[in-house]
Amino acid sequence: MRGMALASAIAVMAASAATANAQQAAEPYSTMSPDGLRTGVIVSEADCARDAMAVWVSAPHGDGTVEGACIRYYAAGLAASNPVAIVFLHGNRLDRVFDKEGRQIRVAASPTSYGKPSASALMASAELQAKALGHPFIILARPGYYGSSGIANEQYRRREVLLVNAALEAIKKRHAIARFGVSSQSGGGPSLAGVLALRSDIDCAAFSSSLTAFDEREKALKGATRGPPLHQVTPDPYDPIREVTAINPHPELRVFIVGDANDKLIPLPAQQAYMEALKKRGVHVSMTSSTAVGDSHHALGATGQRAVGWCIDKLADDEILARMSKGEATYKLEGGFY
Q1: 247: in domain
Q2: Which region among 14-18, 124-128, 220-224 has the lowest average model confidence (pLDDT)?
Q3: Is 251 helix (H, G, I), strand (E, B) or coil?
Q4: Same domain for 163 and 284?
């Protein structure tokens, strides 16, 4: 009897393992996984069309070759038509290693840094944040991230800006969105800066600990080991501070910038340099400092998102800046996406 029970248990375990393996094999290889994030993933236009929360857009590479991409987004609070929606452009999740000559030798994306994202979890985060902000909320997955096709390692390039802009336009038409508020965290900064130069339907923007000045960042780091200069390793780069003349200020546009004085990744002086460049261009811009979360004193995504919401709600600049300075822990939600 004991032998029969053991054999039965082994059979059940084998069947369970086979089922798990079959489920794993059935799951498409996508940028939802750390491996997919590291290597990049191609999604066909036909497969993209079958995803109700994805848009197919195209943009040229640096050599002029035009290629399409499937951009995924996670939205909550949208109605049949929407006077305004808040969009969040997340930061980077890759660890890039270079040799002394500036050649890339490793790209890492671990479950620790990327987690185990899923469409249902991201939708739940969007719902939570739409409720907290009091406005429709959209997490836009940058190329190569969170189900979007592409190669995340091709960050900070002009093509990413163009793809994000095209995705915003497609989402706007699909959901009848009249105006946008857009927030960026860290590596999402170049895309936000880029769409400000390409669009006139953004009334509120917030850069939180955002990369907006390549050379100024290198100078402010004062030799700290952060890899080679970004211009050296970024083909066809979009460096926001050198693109401000493309922004056409309009009366409704308000821009807010927030950073931590102890930020180890994007020092405050680099963010201040971008603020001064925007101001010189005639953009209505305000800046404050706050207390980020994390060992790098870098994470301020919740603060930036709230700033956009307050801006849409027509709060005065001084009130928004005062609220932003209260610290990231004040606004970060358990289960939120930052």
Answers
A1: yes
A2: 14-18
A3: coil
A4: yes
Structural domain count of the chain: 2
d(CA 318, CA 99): 46
- H-type alpha helices, 134-267: 158-175, 189-198, 214-221, 230-233
Both 2 and 104 in one domain: the answer is no
pTM of the model: 0.91
The reported pLDDT for the residue numbered 13 is: 36
Question: Residue written as tokens 């997955």?
Answer: 141
pLDDT at 288: 98
Question: In 3-state terms, the chain is what percent helix, strand and coil (to 5)?
Answer: 40, 20, 35
Same domain, 75 and 23: no
Tokens 């990231």 — which residue? 328
| 137 and 7 within one domain | no
Structural domain includes residue 97: yes
Cβ neighbours, 10 Å, residue 16: 10
Q: Which two tokens stand for residue 268?
A: 């405050």
Q: Are residues 116 and 21 in the same domain?
A: no
